[in-house]
């Protein structure tokens, strides 16, 4: 199993630019989670999907953030326009349906907005 | 909603000593408690988990205990080694929460050789 795959691993861009982060969950997992990690705020849940449908997006900080899951094997997190305070590590995780299922994390995308 | 508090935020031990990290949760309906280890620059990785129908679980040098009455659970690492140095996160979820984990703020463990 290849695990959760995220791309790119690193992204450096100037403020105002659009940023798109990508995630491929583990095959067969029907839950997908997007997290943001910073020193100040720790690990924050942004949004999660079940069977490609967004379930809870209450963690999305602003309208500048949007996420999609067009099919079971692909999800994107988009920031437009980006701001320096969006700099963080963004993790994607996936899990099976059911109570007590562990989430498996990808290697993350380290995003720096200049 | 659920709230998970984790203590201490930092912990320094000598190699070979034991380390204990404690978490409390607020929702008595929580029934699944995983622990994740995150090394510097790496992803969080599941190291052990426990469900509410058991009080203790062990895996080599790592053990987790759960006290449902007091609503707290702890991670125990024995015979610590330098490679145990990392940030450890506890989490909790409840039946019907659709897999949503509530994470603690993390404990930075440093094991000095």
Notes on the protein architecture:
The complex is a heterodimer of chains A (114) and B (113). Chain A contains no helices and eleven strands. The mean pLDDT of chain A is 94. Chain A is mostly beta strands and 114 residues long. In chain A, strands 2, 4, 5, 6, 9, 10 and 11 form a seven-stranded mixed sheet that branches. In chain B, strand 7 and strand 8 (72-77) form a beta hairpin. The mean pLDDT of chain B is 93. At the A-B interface, strand 5 and strand 10 of A face strand 4, strand 5 and strand 9 of B.
Mean pLDDT metric of chain B: 93
Distance between the termini of chain B: 41 Å
Q: Tell me the series of helices and strands of chain B, N- to C-terminal.
A: EEEEEEEEEEE
Largest sheet of chain A: 7 strands, mixed
User: Helicity level of chain A, as a percent range?
Assistant: under 10%
Mean pLDDT of chain A: 94
Q: Strand share of the residues of chain A? A: over 45%
- Largest interchain contact: A-B, 23 and 24 residues
Q: How many distinct helices of chain B?
A: 0
Low-pLDDT runs of chain B: none
Oligomeric state of shown chains: heterodimer
Helices, strands, pairings?
The complex is a heterodimer of chains A (114) and B (113).
Chain A: E1 5-7, E2 10-13, E3 19-24, E4 31-38, E5 42-50, E6 53-56, E7 65-71, E8 74-79, E9 88-95, E10 104-105, E11 109-113
Parallel strand pairs in A: 2-11
Antiparallel strand pairs in A: 1-3, 3-8, 4-5, 4-9, 5-6, 7-8, 9-10, 9-11
Chain B: E1 4-7, E2 10-14, E3 19-25, E4 30-38, E5 45-51, E6 56-59, E7 62-67, E8 72-77, E9 86-94, E10 102-103, E11 107-112
Parallel strand pairs in B: 2-11
Antiparallel strand pairs in B: 1-3, 3-8, 4-5, 4-9, 6-7, 7-8, 9-10, 9-11
